[in-house]
Design goal:
single chain, alpha/beta, Rossmann fold, 4 domains, 7-stranded mixed β-sheet, 6-stranded mixed β-sheet, globular, binds thiamine diphosphate, binds 1-deoxy-D-xylulose-5-phosphate, binds magnesium ion, Dxylulose-5-P_synthase, Transketolase-like_Pyr-bd, 1-deoxy-D-xylulose-5-phosphate synthase, EC 2.2.1.7
């Protein structure tokens, strides 16, 4: 059922937030309606993060109405809920290319607009960043507001607490807005979430607060005098009732909870807060998916949707749709093997930092609910928790995206590898992810992992390798990282092992070319599949490396010695990656050949489709073939040694 176009008379008037401030207050409810509809139309056309945006229509409008943006700084956490913010800040027409090559990013981005004072994509940074801005304003003597808007999910991360801890102590001039919709991507978890629920569901506090404030208002000048101690009175009441908020204990004045869809309440409350200084926290209750019934019912399914995702949701589904014949994703294959092991071995437990769905753990959750730990957005904790479990003989598996693991490399090194603990890391979204862009690209797990002692690193090229790697990891007496991309997974690319080790590379093809043009092409991970036709066309030998650590250097050196050049291809940072390590190791083994390393270039790759991102880094099939051909076509270089 296509979305019916609707007029957006008021929204059409808004080029900048200043235009919004010029509208009559009475027209704002209509504007909110228009914004919600424009959002649906836009996500229908482009896909993107829908449910979180539907939940912040009124909040976004109210913030830009009350605060003097961009002079006042709005720092949105994660940034996945900023589509309306972008619409109101001069990017509405451009949004038709959202997350596409050359279009606006799906997150905030400094380079995009002066209204995006801080870029994000990873969660829980907003309070730190806004605090930095508040302290800078203090240093420079500027009276500007710094406002962090953070979700209840993002609030579960350690960094958010670190920032609150600092801000409360400094008594910084900072407003933190907690956008509480009781959801992370999945239902939110944790004791803090329960604390927010208690705060939400304490009408007694609200009654006391309102009647107390009314009394003060009616007391005229005396009330005003007392008004300065109003926060103190309120704090006292909360203490008396035993419902003091954690935030007050940390030095913030706590306001709310208020209904984040009630525009009048939002405007009044934010207006009042704008007149105050010091650390303030406003608890706003919103509904993820608000205004689109299917998204309200299923905010998890509507966290992110593809093109036409809105109209599809509104079309009654037929249960007879043909099943897709496409191969499974890497995520599905890995999750299936994990479940297989969990079935066999009760020591196998899975840990996810708030990515149950994305990491393919729904099946595991249903089958082994007691053995799945969703720790919230807490990557560092997830890793060290696994370490603790491993010390007690469990076989923990941390299912994590490469990009989010970046948060926890100290834990991987210090807590896991240094103690040689048997923790398995299923590192998903390794490589270029596409529309989420550089904030979410998994470019660094290989170059980081290559240098960590004790850490085994599997780079499976197909489902067969992936299953074997997980099998190996779960009996190995030490840590192991298994990495794979956001893509479909080929079943079995075949090939012969180079030696008897379980971690041996596989030879897929032998070159028939004569010296001096015999090239050994070493494919790393998911790149191997696209190298098969290239190696045939260019007549190279082709090896599927399978394991980056341990690196099977002896059989590889033997094979390389029969060649005149070596080319490595990996979907990870070229700098310090597997290719670099391999070529150096070969040289140390006396095989000193000209080498070409293909990998993610030394710059951040912009968003686009996954194929466009690969092309941007020279890793699509055509570019790889061209690079190798150019390399082979330089006989001087090839014959130089
Ligand atoms: C460090 C990090 N871990 C995980 C994610 C993936 N992620 C994106 S949004 C999200 C849920 C955030 O929940 P919340 O902050 O409450 O925002 P909501 O979507 O509910 O508005 C998660 C887990 C991320 N972006 N960054
Ligand atoms: C905003 C965020 O970080 C997630 O929602 C992310 O976009 C999910 O990515 P996948 O679609 O790859 O699971
Ligand atoms: Mg939330």
């Amino acid at each position: 059922m296509p979305l019916s176009p609707r007029q957006t008379h008021l929204l059409d008037l808004i080029e900048r937030p200043a235009d919004l401030r010029a509208l009559s207050r009475g027209s704002l409810a209509t504007l909110a309606e228009e914004m919600r509809h424009a959002l649906l139309e836009q996500v229908e056309a482009t896909g993107g993060h829908l449910a979180a945006n539907l939940g912040v229509v009124e909040l976004t409008l109210a913030l830009h109405r009350v605060f003097d943006t961009p002079y006042d700084r709005l720092v949105w956490d994660v940034g996945h809920q900023t589509y309306l913010h972008k619409m109101l800040t001069g990017r509405r027409a451009w949004m038709s290319q959202l997350r596409q090559h050359g279009g606006p990013a799906g997150f905030t981005r400094r380079a995009e607009s002066e209204y995006d004072p801080f870029g994000a994509g990873h969660s829980s940074t907003s309070v730190s960043a806004a605090l930095g801005m508040a302290l800078a304003a203090e240093q420079k003597g500027e009276d500007r507001h710094a406002v962090a808007i953070i979700g209840d999910g993002a609030l579960t991360a350690g960094q958010a607490f670190e920032a609150l801890n600092h801000a409360g102590d400094r008594q910084a001039n900072l407003l933190v807005i907690v956008n509480d919709n009781e959801m992370s991507i999945s239902a939110n978890v944790g004791a803090l979430n329960q604390h927010l629920t208690r705060l939400r569901s304490n009408p007694m506090i609200e009654r006391f607060r309102h009647s107390g404030e009314e009394m003060l208002a009616q007391a005229g000048p005396l009330g005003e005098l007392l008004g300065s101690t109003r926060a103190g009175l309120r704090d006292g009441m909360r203490h008396l009732l035993g419902t003091s908020s954690l935030f007050e204990e940390l030095g913030f004045r706590y306001f709310g909870p208020i209904d984040g869809h009630d525009l009048d309440t939002l405007l009044d409350t934010l207006g009042n807060l704008r007149e105050q200084r010091g650390p303030r926290l406003l608890h706003v209750v919103t509904q993820k998916g608000r205004g689109l019934a299917p998204a309200e019912r299923d905010p998890v399914g509507f966290h992110g949707v593809g093109r036409n995702g809105v109209s599809r949701a509104m079309t009654p589904s037929t249960d007879h749709q043909p099943k897709s014949a496409a191969p499974p994703t890497w995520t599905e294959v890995a999750a299936g093997r994990l479940e297989h092991h969990a079935e066999q071995d009760e020591r196998v437990v899975a840990i996810t930092p708030a990515m149950v769905e994305g990491s393919g753990l729904k099946g595991f959750a249903a089958r082994f609910p007691e053995r799945l730990f969703d720790v919230g957005i807490a990557e560092q904790h997830a890793v060290t928790l696994a370490g603790g479990l491993a010390t007690e003989g469990m076989r923990p598996v941390v299912a994590i995206y490469s990009t989010f693991l970046q948060r926890a490399w100290d834990q991987v090194i210090h807590d896991i590898a240094l103690q040689d603990l048997p923790v398995t890391f299923l590192v998903d979204r390794a490589g270029l992810v596409g529309p989420d862009g550089p904030t979410h690209a998994g470019s660094f797990d290989l170059s980081l992992g290559m240098s960590v002692p004790n850490l085994a690193v599997a780079v499976p090229a197909d489902a067969h390798d992936l299953r074997e790697a997980i099998d190996w990891a779960l009996v190995h007496d030490g840590p192991c990282l298994v990495r794979y991309p956001r893509d479909r997974c080929p079943d079995d690319l075949g090939g012969q092992p180079l030696d008897k080790a379980a971690t041996s590379p596989r030879l897929l093809r032998r070159s028939e070319a004569q010296t001096p043009r015999r090239v050994l092409l070493i494919g790393i991970g998911a790149m191997v599949e696209r190298l098969i036709p290239i190696s045939e066309t260019l007549d190279t030998t082709l090896v599927n490396l399978r394991w980056a650590r341990p690196l099977a250097i002896a059989p590889l050196a033997e094979l390389a010695a029969e060649h005149d050049a070596v080319v490595t291809v990996e979907e990870g940072s070229r700098i310090g990656g597997v290719g670099s390590e391999l070529l150096l190791a070969l040289a140390e083994h006396g095989v000193n050949l000209p080498g070409l390393r293909l990998g993610i270039e030394d710059r951040f790759i912009e968003h686009g489709s996954r194929e466009e991102c690969l092309a941007d880094s020279g890793l699509d099939s055509r570019s790889i073939a061209a690079s190798i051909a150019a390399f082979i076509g330089k006989p001087d270089k090839v014959s130089a040694t």
